Please model this.
Amino acid sequence: MANVNRIAAEDGAAIGLWRSDIKPTLTLGLPLVGAQLAQMAINTTDVVMIGWLGAEELAAAVLAFNLFILFWFFGMGVTQAVIPLAARAVGQKTPRDLRRVVRMGLWVVALYCLPVWVTLSFTEQILVLLGQDPEISRLAGGYMLVMQWTLLPSLAIMALRAFLTVMECTQILLWTTLGGAVVNAGLDYVLIFGLLGAPRLELVGAAIASVFTASMNFVLLVVYVTRHRRLRRYTIFGRLWRSDWPVFFQIVRFGWPIGTVIVAEGVLFSGSAVMMGWIGTLPLAAHGIALQIASIVFMVPVGLSQAGMARVGLAMGRGDLAGIGRAGWTALGLTLGFMGCAAVTFWTVPDVLVSLFLDFDNPQAADVLAIAVSFLSVAALFQLFDGAQISGGSMLRGLGDTVVPLVFALLGYWVIGVGLSYGLAFGVGLGGIGIWWGLAGGLAATASMAIWRFANRERLGLVRV
Model:
């Protein structure tokens, strides 16, 4: 009887430890989720208001933004390396190392922006070389000449976001991004259309609104970090001009594979749109709707995975082997739980979700609805695999493991994902739904490899405590 009681007590203590990880993961992750959704609202507002100008202006903005976002994604991926490195410093209680990592994260951002600005200043010429309409390319180039200055403040925000995440101060990220969404919408309306005495600047007005909003949010975060009672003692901006090249190159070494993975995933979905366009206009429209719904839901795993990455890094810094596992598996479990609920929604009311994006006065709306509903039936499983792969990758990043996960991602996305999509769509003849099955297969493969590697982290020598 005593042994039974002892075992029951040990099991209860173990369950309590796991439960104790759920609350801090949600506390850290939910504001990040909200910030991701608010950022998506900013981008959506830009698209909607520019769309009111006309098809040419919208086409120009879409072309310019798709070029800009590839560079932004890579830069954002590199700055994500600040999270595990900063978390490890916090776990080891070495504030000097934390300050060095964040300071060099800002240096990485600043030096990365210089060549990118030069490249983006030739947007018009680049688009013309890619075969785009010269007039649309001219409009896109004018828009980009202003929009490109958003790169520095928005990526600097990501470096500060890493610091705030490991310090478990993510609420400010939510509120500043929500405030930015409101300011951006107001400035868009005034500057694009020339209201309240402002000149009508059209596309350039939208770009100015974006630059102002990103700069404002960066300044707000700087003020918060320097005034907050607990954060200001780290003097993150102290001796900002002082170089620390070993830490700088450590961030670059950890970060470039992350940036490459993010860009590869973005190009994967761009490629899926190209293949869908080969099938027809209606499947492409339906694909866009289904992908937009999936992208909104995906913001939740993005936030939870960043929280998991930070908590894995903190446990790594403390030398807490059990805590590393709990942090990673908790983030994965919460992600799969949410995505499971999303999958049920996709299966049960897909027509309701798709209808939000359609005008049924258009005679083609019913056909697009039917195709998009079929895509969402596959997207339900797709979402589970997508959530698992970003969570698995982030768990490994928390350990400072980035190169092998890059290989996994390229293999999963491009060899398996693209290969299956093309084979099922055109070889087997499944059409558009075959592309979605292929994407799901690629993401499932990537998730399986990443989760297997995390599960075997000690045997593979990834944990060094």
